[in-house]
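Re: export button greyed out
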Amino acid sequence: MKALESNKDVALTKEKAQWMYQKMVEIRNFEDRVHELFAKGILPGFVHLYAGEEAVAVGVCAHLNDKDSITSTHRGHGHCIAKGCDLDGMMAEIYGKVTGLCKGKGGSMHIADFDKGMLGANGIVGGGFPLACGSALTAKYKKTDNVSVCFFGDGAQNHGTFHEGINLAAIWKLPVVFVAENNGYAEATPFSYASSCKSIVDRAIAYNIPGIKVDGKDILAVYQAAEEAVLRARRGEGPTLIECVTYRNYGHFEGDAQTYKGDQEKAEHKQEKDAILLFRKHLLNEQLLAENEVVAIEKSVEAAVDQAVKFSEESPYPNASELLTDVYVSY
Amino acid sequence: MKALESNKDVALTKEKAQWMYQKMVEIRNFEDRVHELFAKGILPGFVHLYAGEEAVAVGVCAHLNDKDSITSTHRGHGHCIAKGCDLDGMMAEIYGKVTGLCKGKGGSMHIADFDKGMLGANGIVGGGFPLACGSALTAKYKKTDNVSVCFFGDGAQNHGTFHEGINLAAIWKLPVVFVAENNGYAEATPFSYASSCKSIVDRAIAYNIPGIKVDGKDILAVYQAAEEAVLRARRGEGPTLIECVTYRNYGHFEGDAQTYKGDQEKAEHKQEKDAILLFRKHLLNEQLLAENEVVAIEKSVEAAVDQAVKFSEESPYPNASELLTDVYVSY
Amino acid sequence: MTRKLSMSGAINEAMKLAMRKDENVILMGEDVAGGAQVDHLQDEDAWGGVLGVTKGLVQEFGRERILDTPITEAGYMGAAMAAASTGLRPIAELMFNDFIGSCLDEVLNQGAKFRYMFGGKAQVPVTIRTMHGAGFRAAAQHSQSLYALFTAIPGVKVVVPSTPYEAKGLLLAAIEDNDPVIFFEDKTLYNMTGDVPEGYYTIPIGKADIKREGSDVTVVAIGKQVHTALEAAEQLSQKGIEIEVVDPRSLSPLDEEAILSSVEKTNRLIVIDEANPRCSIATDIAALVADKGFDHLDAPIKRITAPHTPVPFSPALEDIYLPKAERVVKVVSELLGTPLEV
Amino acid sequence: MTRKLSMSGAINEAMKLAMRKDENVILMGEDVAGGAQVDHLQDEDAWGGVLGVTKGLVQEFGRERILDTPITEAGYMGAAMAAASTGLRPIAELMFNDFIGSCLDEVLNQGAKFRYMFGGKAQVPVTIRTMHGAGFRAAAQHSQSLYALFTAIPGVKVVVPSTPYEAKGLLLAAIEDNDPVIFFEDKTLYNMTGDVPEGYYTIPIGKADIKREGSDVTVVAIGKQVHTALEAAEQLSQKGIEIEVVDPRSLSPLDEEAILSSVEKTNRLIVIDEANPRCSIATDIAALVADKGFDHLDAPIKRITAPHTPVPFSPALEDIYLPKAERVVKVVSELLGTPLEV
Ligand SMILES: Cc1ncc(C[n+]2csc(CCOP(=O)(O)OP(=O)(O)O)c2C)c(N)n1
Ligand SMILES: Cc1ncc(C[n+]2csc(CCOP(=O)(O)OP(=O)(O)O)c2C)c(N)n1
Ligand SMILES: [Mg+2]
Ligand SMILES: [Mg+2]
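Workaround output, generated via the alternate export path:
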C-alpha cells in the first residue's frame, strides 16, 4: 500500500482544491438527501448510495476532462457527480421524471451522460471492465490522448470480466485506469471471505501492470495515485490498477439493516475516518481555503441539492409515447 | 519454474513406470491413428490432437484413482486415456458409433466416462474451471478425500472462468489441482500475445495459492509437482496451480497448416524434446524397464489401437430412435 | 394442516423440507445467508437472500450447506452443474434472472447438454432459483422475464409458479427432478399470501392448472399474469362473459393437452405473458394451438405481452409496460365481437 | 459487374468494402487474423478466421484494424459495445454462436439496452458476425442455431442470410446500421457460390425476399432452410403443387407484411427452421399469422424444425436431426389433403 495517510507534498491549486471539496460535498449532500427521500417513500426502485466513498470518485476524476470517459457501477451517483453530471438531471432521473438525464428511462442504476464522458451506471456487477476497454480502444485507435477509468467494487473483482478486461487492456496497452473501491463488503458479504487475495492490488501482478493501494479516505493519496496512472495511460503505456480502501456509510441499498457491520467501524467512518472531514481539515490547516470559503461551498451545495429536488418534484413524468422511443421496435 | 529438467530423485515403482510409459504410448499412437483416419476422410468433425503433450496428462493422472475426477478440454483424448477410458469406446465415439463411450452422441469433443472420473471433454474453452470446483465441492461436502483436476490451455487461462473458478476453489479450499497445458498457442495465437503474464503461474499469487511451473515434456517433473498438489488437495489445504510448458505436435485441429509455428520448434519438439523419447531413455538408463519390456508395451499398444479401429469400423451407428433418448423431450 | 403463507415463505419452507429430507441438497448463491465469516454472525444470516427468501436456512443447516458465493455466477453455476452430476442435488440461486448473461454457458452448453451429449452417462439434478418480473421499479437490467430463453434450451425444465401453494409443491418437485430445472420467482409476488399445506408435497412438473373455468375464451397466463387474468375474469363475468384461465405452471414441459382441450371447449385463445413478445412463450403457445388446435379455433389467437422494448424505469412508463386487466377485458370483448361501451 | 462468389467470399468482400469506406470500421475476434506478433507473420494472417472467412483482411488493413483477441468473449464483446458507443463501428466476430454463453451479458444487458436505458443518449453501431448451424459434425456445443435468443432481445437486430448476394448486401447494411446487429452465417453454406455484384451495395434489413412464387402454400424458411424449401418446391412442382418460398432474411425486424400477404394468397403456412422448436422463430412466425393472418388461413400452421434435443454428433443422427426436403414435401402434401403415395 502506497500511503495510508495524506501525502503532504501533493500540490493542489486553489481552484482544484475548491472543485474537489465542492464535488465531495455535492456527493455527500446528494446522497443524504436521496436517503431521506427514499425513507419517506418518495423515491422508487433500488438505490445504492455512495456516501463515504467521495474521495475516490473525486480524487480520480480530478484528472479527467469531458472527453475522458468513465464506467461506473450500481453505486454510481458519486461517479456521475465527480464526472460533472448535472444534479438536476440526476435527481430527476432518480425520480423517473422526463427531465432526467435519461428521460427517466434509466433510473438510479443507469444514469449516463455521454457528453460528460459518463458512460453509464451499471446494474450488472463487473459490467464495466470490458466497457472501459472499449472506450479506451476508441481513444487509442483515434490517437486522442483520452483515458478511460473503470470504477468497480471489491465484489466485482471476483467476476470473470475483471480478469478478461484487465488482461485485454494490458496486452493492447489500452489507456485504462482500473479503480477498485474496496469498501469491505459486497452486499452483506465481506471482501475477506469472497476474495482469495489479501489485497486487490495483489492481482495486478497477474497482468504485469502496476498496482497501487491507497487509503481511499485520503483524497490526496487517491489524487496522487490517479495522477500517476492517468498520465501513464495518456502516454500510451497501458493500464494501472489502483485499490482504494474505503467504506460506505449507508447500507448496500436503501433498506439494508447492515447487521454484518461492526458498531465501531460504523462509528469511526462517520467521524475520524470521514473523507470529507479529513479533507476539510487539510484545506484549512494548509490554508488552501479559508473557513468562510469552505462554508460558502457547503451552503451553495445545499441550495443546489434543494434545487435539484424542487426541479425533480416539479418535472413531469415521461409521456406514454416514450415507452416506444429510443429503440427499434419490430412490431 | 520448479524444474526444467528431470528431477532424478523421483522414485517410481516399476509398475507405475510401466503404466506411465504405456499410457503415453497409447496416447501418441491413438492420436497418430486419428490423424491418419481424419486425413483419409474417414473421421467426421473437429478433431484436436493431444500428441506431444502426453507427459502432462499421464504425469498428473498417475496420482489419481477412479473416484478422483478430471475436467478436460476440446483436446481431450489424452486426458481420457490417462484417466483410464477404454480405447475401443473412445475410438468408436470419435467415429460416431453407438458403441462409443457416449453412444456416438458426443464425439471427439465430448467424450465422458463418469465411472472413470472423466467428467467430459469440453468444446467450450474455459468450461472446465467451474466444473472442477463442482466435483471438488461434492468431495469436500461428502468428506471423501477425492480430488478434482482441471486441465486447461494457455488460451483458456484468459477466460473469465479461470478467475472465477480458481478464486472459488481458493476461498472454499476445494480439493482442485489446476493444470495449465501451456503449449504456446491458442489456435493460431501465441500465448505471449494473448496473455499479459509472462508465466501462467504468475497468476497463482492473485489467488494466494501455490503455483508450480514445470517442464511439461519431463514427465517426472510433472509427476512430482502433481504429487505435491494432489496430496495438498487431499489434505484439505485447497487448490494448486501447476503450469506445464509443452507443445502440440499437430495443428490446432486437423486441417491446420500451422504457418504460425517456427520450423525449428516443430523439429526439436519431435526429436530431442519429445516427452516419450525422453521418458523412454530415462526408463532404460535407470533400468526401470528393460528394452524388451519397453518394446512389448509399444507393440501391445499398437495392437490395441488397431483393435480400437477395427472395433469402431465394425460397430453400427446409433439407431434413429437414439435421437430422442437421454433428454427430456417436451413435445 | 393448511395455513396462510406468503410466496416467499412457501419457497423458504420448501427448501427447508427438501434439505431435511435429503442431505445431498445444498443451497448456493450470493448472500443466500450473508455475513459469511463475520464473527457475530456465525450461525446466523445477515440477509438470507437479497429479499429475504432464504432467511433462517443457515440457522438450521449451517454454513456447510448454505453457501454464500462470490459474485461469480459462472463459477458457482458451473460448480452446481458438476456437483449435481457427481452426487449432490444443489439449489443454485441466480439472484435476478437478468444475470444469466454472466453464466449462460454453464446452463446452455454444460448442465443442459451433459445428459444427452454424454449418451445418458450423466444426470444433472440441479435447481436454479431465480427472480424475474417487472413492476418493482428495478429498471432494465433487473426486471426481465427470461423464461423463454430457457424454454428454448433442450434439456432443462422451466417452472413459473403463480401461487404460494404451487411454489412450494413445484419447488419440491424441481429439487427431486433429475434434470436441471429453472424455477422462476416473480419478485412482486413474494408478499402475496395464500393457503399452503404444511409438510412435504410435490406438484408434478408438466401439469397445467385451470385457475378458473369458463367457456367463452381460453386465457393462458404465465406467472403473475395469472392474477391479471383472474382480475379480468371477474370483470368479464359481470358482463356475462366467462373466460377459462389456464396456468401452465411449467413451460417446459408444457401441458399441451390442457391448453388444447380448453381451446377445444372455448374455441378462442389469448395468451398473457409479460415478457417481450418475440420468440416468447406467448408465441410458443400460440403456435401450438395454431397447429394442433387449429380446427377448433373460431378467432385469431391474441397475445397480450410487454412491448418489444427494455423495461423502463419511470413508474409512469413501467405501469403501462405490463399487461393489465383492462387490456385483457378489451381484447376478450373484441374477440367475442362484443366491443366495450366506452 | 456480377461474378460467382462463395458465401464466405461475399462476406469477406463486404468487410473489405466497409473498411475501405469508413475508417471507423474495425474487426475484432479470435484469430480473425491469427499469428499476432509472430515474427514472420507481421503483415500476414495465419488463419484469417477459423474457417478462413476473414482471410486477407490484415494484409490490407493492418493489425490496428484487424484485432486478434484473447479467448475472452465477454471482454472483447463488451469492448466492442463501448467502442461503438464512443465513435467506432466495430465488427465483432463471435466464432460460433454457441459461445454466446460466455458473453450474453454484453449483448443482453449492455449493448442492446444502452440506447433505450440511457434515454436515447447512446447509439451502439456494432455488428456481431457469428457462425451457426448443424450438419458440420461439430456436435452439441458447436452446431446450434441461436437466432431466436437474439430476436427475443429488444434493441438488437438479427440477420440470417441464405445466399452470397444477400450476405454481402445485408452485412453492409448491418455495418451501416446504428443499432447492434447480429449477423448469422451458416458454416455449411460458406462454400455455396452464387452471383454477387462487385462494388458496394446494401440490402435493407427488414425486407423479406420471395425466393420462389407459388400459390398453394406459403413456406417461410430461415437461412440454409431456404434451400431445403427450394428443393422441396422443385419436387412438388413436378406434382403440380406450387409453394411460395419466403426468406425473411432478417428476423428482427421481421417483414410481417411480406409473410402476411403471401399467406393471404396461399391460405396456408409452413415454417422451416432448423433451430430447436420451443420459443423459436418458427413459433414467432406461426403466432404472427395465427393472429394477423387468421382470417386467411385454411389449414393448421405447420412447423418443420429440429427436435427438442441437443445436436447429436453421430452423422447417422445429425442427418435426421435437420429438416429435409422430403419432410417438407410430406407436410405440404398432407396440408393440401393430397397425401403422398408411398
Ligand atoms: C452480475 C451481477 N451479479 C450480482 C449482482 C447483485 N449485486 C448488486 S451489487 C452487488 C454487490 C457488489 O459489491 P461491490 O462490487 O463490492 O460493490 P459495492 O456495492 O460494495 O459498491 C451484488 C452482488 C449484480 N447486480 N450483477
Ligand atoms: C468459449 C470459447 N471460445 C472460443 C473457442 C474456440 N476455440 C477452441 S480451442 C481454442 C484455443 C484454445 O487454446 P488453449 O486453451 O491454449 O488450448 P490448446 O488448443 O492449445 O490445447 C479456441 C479459441 C471455444 N471453443 N470456446
Ligand atoms: Mg464493496
Ligand atoms: Mg494452447
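Chain B has one domain: 14-317. The button fix ships in the next patch.
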